[in-house]
Amino acid sequence: MLKRETRILGLSSPRRARFKPIIGVIFRGNLWLDAVVTYPQPKSKKGCLQGLADALKETKQYSQIQAAIFSSDDVIDHKYQDYKRLSELVNFPVFAITKKRSVRMPRGNFTKIQRDRGRIKLWINEYSPERASALYNLGCSVGQSTPEAVISAELIASTLK
Question: What is the spatial distance between Cα 45 and Cα 2, in angstroms, rounded to a whole number?
Answer without folding.
Answer: 35
